[in-house]
Amino acid sequence: MDYKRRDFLKIAGTFASGVALTGVAGQLAGCGTSSKLSGKNNTFGLQLYSLRDDLPKDPKGVLRQVASFGYKQIEGFEGSKGIYWGMSNTEFKRYMDDLGMQMVSSHCNWKQNLEKKADEAAAIGMKYLMCPYLGPQKSLDLFKKAAEDFNKAGQICKQRGIRFAYHNHDYSFKKVEGQYPQDVMMQNTDKDLVDYELDMYWIVAAGQNPNEWFQKYPRRFKLGHVKDRGGKETTTLGKGNIDYPSLLKAAQKGGMEYFIVEQEQYEGTTPLAAAKDDADYMKRLKI
After folding, report:
1. What is residue 201's DSSP assignment?
2. Among 34, 40, 106, 224, which residue carries the largest CB count within 10 Å?
3. What residue numbers bound the domain in which 136 lies?
4. Which Gene3D superfamilies match (predicted)?
């Protein structure tokens, strides 16, 4: 089954216009700017959804360009040609090796054939499979049920030597029945089975201070999506109003290990040009 991401533009339109991103950045500003980004292997990755329109046309050619930009890691998603873009998992791994890159994780349809997907991911040294989107739920009980399902998925992955994680959008940082769904999910998942990928664009867009969540749940956010916010849309890193030098310093202190660039809109540029500009920003970044 093809995996389809939600319409980000529609979601972005629902945000309150008064989100004070500079306030979030200001609360993090004391982190300083003294050292280079030092994630796993001192590197950073790209979520391939950023190139969703280009990849189907020439997967190998596009991946070669990604490698030439300086990315050493990639995070996949389950598209029309599967997680491995028409290749077997081992063929994909060999091609990644040739390019000097590693596929560390993938978003996927975790409710379908997870055992098979986890076997294939483990066989090529991937670290994570994850739920990319749950969607707003009508009650906290439904988020608790999702947490139970995440634990089951985490057990399947753990048995194969990999990890399971959940990737947030804005809805989990907006209260339902007086509580944040993100709290409910994190408090009802076993830390030995389930990790979290913090999408730093969406948490800031929801008006939350990421640093508070790093402190509240140390070492639970093992991966992060790095994308900037201009107005109510994503923009090329460094052109928006998220203070990443400070934010990523806090993320590293909180135990984040993988920093995955993602780009969703491309006003005034192209997906590949944006991926290159984002890589240039990450290479220059000092935190």
Report:
1. H
2. 224
3. 8-284
4. Divalent-metal-dependent TIM barrel enzymes
Domain membership of residue 3 (yes or no) is no
Do 75 and 47 meet the contact criterion of CB atoms below 8 Å apart? yes
Q: CA-CA-CA-CA torsion for 52, 56, 60, 66, nearest 10 degrees?
A: -20
Task: Tell me which residue of 261, 198, 270 sits closest to 228, measured CA to CA.
Answer: 261
Residue 234 is encoded by which pair of tokens?
A: 């994503």
Question: Which residue matches tokens 């379908």?
Answer: 112
Asked, for residue 55, whether it belongs to a domain, the answer is: yes
Q: Letter for the amino acid at 225? A: H
What pLDDT shows up at residue 31?
39
Per residue in 244-262, pLDDT (tens digit) is 999 999 999 999 999 999 9
Q: Where are the beta strands (DSSP E) in 91-232?
A: 102-107, 128-131, 163-167, 194-199, 221-226, 228-230
Burial class (CB in 10 A: 0-12, 13-18, 19+), 149: middle
Q: Which CATH number goes with the domain that contains 162?
A: 3.20.20.150
Instruction: Evaluate whether 154 touches 193 at the Cβ level (below 8 Å).
Output: yes
Amino acid 266: pLDDT:
87
Please name the amino acid found at residue 201.
Answer: Y
Q: How many helices (H) and strands (E) does the chain have?
A: 11, 10
With respect to residue 246, please indicate whether it lies within any of the assigned structural domains. Answer: yes
Give Cβ neighbours of residue 277 (< 8 Å, ≥ 6 apart): 236, 237, 269
pLDDT in tens, 124-183: 999 999 999 999 999 999 999 999 999 999 999 999 999 999 999 999 999 999 999 999
pTM, rounded to two decimals? 0.87
Domain count, the chain: 1
